[in-house]
Every structure is written in C-alpha cells, then in structure tokens.
From TrEMBL:
This is PadR family transcriptional regulator. Pfam families: PadR. Residues 6-89 form the Transcription regulator PadR N-terminal domain. Transmembrane segments: none annotated. The keyword Coiled coil applies. It comes from Rhizocola hellebori. Residues 128-181 form a coiled coil. It comes from the Bacteria. Keywords: Coiled coil. InterPro entries: Metal_resp_DNA-bind_regulator, Tscrpt_reg_PadR_N, WH-like_DNA-bd_sf, WH_DNA-bd_sf. The lineage of its organism: Bacteria, Bacillati, Actinomycetota, Actinomycetes, Micromonosporales.
Length: 193
C-alpha cells in the first residue's frame, strides 16, 4: 500500500522525501502509523529501481546527465514517471479482500478521485461486508460473554460495536451517492469523478 500512496502523492506533484513523509502522515495518518524514514527511503529506492519514479531533473540513461533538482536544503526531489503513472493506475484498479482491510482501504479511499466508479463501488461494498462481519463479531461477544467481561473490556466491545455501526452507515451513504452519481447525466463540471 505504501507504493500506491507514494505514487499517488507524486502523481499530484514532485516532492522531496521530507515533504513526501509529511504528506503521507497527513493524508494517511488517521489510518496508518507514522511512516518512518527507515521505511520511506528504501521504498523510494525500490520504486526508482523499477523505473516508477525518478529524481526530478534527471534525463533518461544515455542522454547528458542534468543534476537533480533539490530543495533549498539540498534534498532530492522525486517525481513519478510514465511507467509509475501506469503502475499507479494498476494499483488503483486492484480490488480484492486485501483492499477492504483498514490500512489498504484508507489508502485506496485517499485516491478515490482518481479511481473509476465501478472500482470505487466494489471497494466500498467489500469494505461494508468486512465491517458488517466485524460488527457481528462484536455483537456475538456481547451476547455470549458480556456477563464474564470486566467493565472495561465490556466498554471496549461496546465502543467497537458503535464504531462498526457508524462505519456501516457511512459506507451505505457513500455507496448510495456513488450509485446515484453514476446514473446521473454528465455534469457541467468535467473534473467531477
């Protein structure tokens, strides 16, 4: 999922590592733990090796090299390549059980504006099923073992159930809006997903 997140952010604009980490933590912070430099820079090197990103200002191999662009502090600025844009689109279109999990769903959701309606709907519906299963698990625990749970564990289970209920309602609203918007005539705004 980190590949998707980095490619998505670099698709929006070139960034140096510090800014990229800051944007990752801002955009995905509520979903994922903070991204460390020890994870970020090896991932950037791997994406560079695969040809999905490059240092801004570099020319293709064989051409006269141009020094990479740097920020005021001398940091290398990364940008997405044409191959990286293709990879980003491939990752966005990927739908399966892993995309319904908390972290993966959050990363996909962060880039929904660049995702097709049918893929958004499949991810939202899969996520709803996943959260409905989670909600049923909380209900089962509360129904079967509530009297054996201490007060704090019981409250934690109730909190989990309430959070799952809220998320299912939110997902149902999103799904309804996606379906409504996909059946509407095209809007005057060409940027509308």
């Amino acid at each position: 999922m980190l590949d998707l997140a980095i490619l998505g952010l670099l698709h929006e604009s070139p960034m140096h590592g510090y800014e990229l980490r800051k944007q990752l933590n801002t955009k995905l912070g509520a979903i994922r733990a903070a991204i460390s430099y020890g994870v970020l820079y090896p991932t950037l090197r791997r994406l560079q090796t695969r040809g999905w990103i490059t240092e801004a200002g570099e020319t293709p191999a064989g051409d006269e090299a141009v020094p990479p662009l740097t920020s005021r502090r001398g940091r290398v600025v990364y940008k997405i390549t044409a191959e990286g844009k293709e990879r980003f689109q491939d990752l966005l279109a990927k739908v399966g059980p892993e995309t319904y999990e908390d972290a993966a769903f959050g990363v996909h959701f962060a880039f929904f504006s660049r995702t097709s309606v049918d893929v958004r709907l499949r991810i939202l519906e899969g996520r709803r099923r996943k959260i409905e299963e989670r909600r049923e698990s909380f209900r089962d625990v509360l129904a079967r073992a509530a009297e054996r749970l201490d007060a704090y564990t019981l409250e934690l289970q109730k909190h989990g159930l309430e959070a799952a209920d809220r998320e299912v309602r939110w997902l149902e609203e999103l799904i309804a809006n996606e379906r409504k918007n996909s059946q509407s005539p095209p809007a005057d705004n060409p940027w509308r997903p």
